[in-house]
């Protein structure tokens, strides 16, 4: 049986609070600190963590410290945690690893860097803050860890990550930054650019959003993300994201040339190759053992959530976790229900009886 940790979470936004909830779920004692007192209070109410007045107080006596601050604050917070928690392993959740490691080496008196393991949980959403946190945010997600870290510290962080429900994967820091530039950072840029084009070029067309179908809404969902957060990320990973944007522009240019030339065969071939590549993507990793996640599209109207929970109650299915993802345009949303794997068929049947259309994700 895995022993309990004393966990310190520095930064109580979406990911930090989700870590606190996941750690509390497995019996770890969790303390939290945030320079934003309001965010800390909301995280405390949502997760049950013990709030601390200072970073030093938060990490004192910890065995695992998770730094979940914005990227510019990560090196300083990691250094302070290493100094103030001499027996803890310290990790972070920043989505750019090389920049953080380089900055950390320049922090005076950073302490024993052998206890630091750079990390990046590949989870979250366009919504931010502790109010949208959930332990299920981490269930089954890939959590990248710097393979160049000290072996003992890396093993300790891997054990913690696995214990709270995620899947640790070792990656070289520079390779990590190059890969996430393509699969995480570039989608954000593309979504933001598309929304910007529609908002400025068609500003005088009030029917624009009325005509926007699912494709436009899905592709621009990320444009609702935190501008401050993404500004920090893109600047920190500037070289890699610059290369990814250039490759994307080249691909768009080639498609434009095919369309303008009226070459239907080449257009179809390009779409076919992309479709085959998309279908070959691996299925979503399994969530925490023993549970299933149901995605339930719902209309945005009073009482709909009560209908979902009533269906589970009448079917005798316990809801292990529940998340609501609202559409920023209104009119619809998605409920993510986590139930015991064995109860999934009953849950799906009960939902369909009420005219919902659940999709089992895992």
Plain-language structure description:
With 362 residues, the chain is of the alpha/beta class. The protein folds into 3 domains: 6-172, NAD(P)-binding Rossmann-like Domain (Rossmann fold, 3-Layer(aba) Sandwich); 176-279, 6-phosphogluconate dehydrogenase C-terminal fold; 291-360, Alpha-Beta Plaits (2-Layer Sandwich). The protein is 47% helix and 17% strand. The chain has helices at residues 14-25, 37-47, 55-59, 74-84, 98-105, 151-163, 173-201, 208-211, 214-219, 227-236, 238-260, 264-279, 304-314, 344-353, and strands spanning 6-10, 29-33, 50-51, 64-67, 89-92, 116-117, 119-121, 142-146, 167-171, 291-299, 319-326, 332-340, 359-360. The strands form 3 sheets. The protein has a 6-stranded parallel β-sheet with strand order 3-2-1-4-5-6, sandwiched between helices. It has a 4-stranded antiparallel β-sheet with strand order 11-12-10-13, covered by helices on one side. The longest helix is centred in the middle third of the chain and has 29 residues, at 173-201. The chain is globular.
Looking at this structure, what is the CATH superfamily of the largest domain?
A: NAD(P)-binding Rossmann-like Domain
Task: Identify low-pLDDT runs.
Answer: 282-287
CATH 2nd-level architecture of the largest domain: 3-Layer(aba) Sandwich
Sheet with most strands: strand arrangement? 3-2-1-4-5-6
Beta-strand content: 15-25%
User: With helices defined by DSSP (H or I, 4 residues minimum), what is the helix count?
Assistant: 14
What is the CATH T-level topology of the largest domain? Rossmann fold
The SSE string, one letter per element, is EHEHEHEHEHEEEHEHHHHHHEHEEHE
What is the total domain count? 3
Mean pLDDT: 88
Outline type = globular
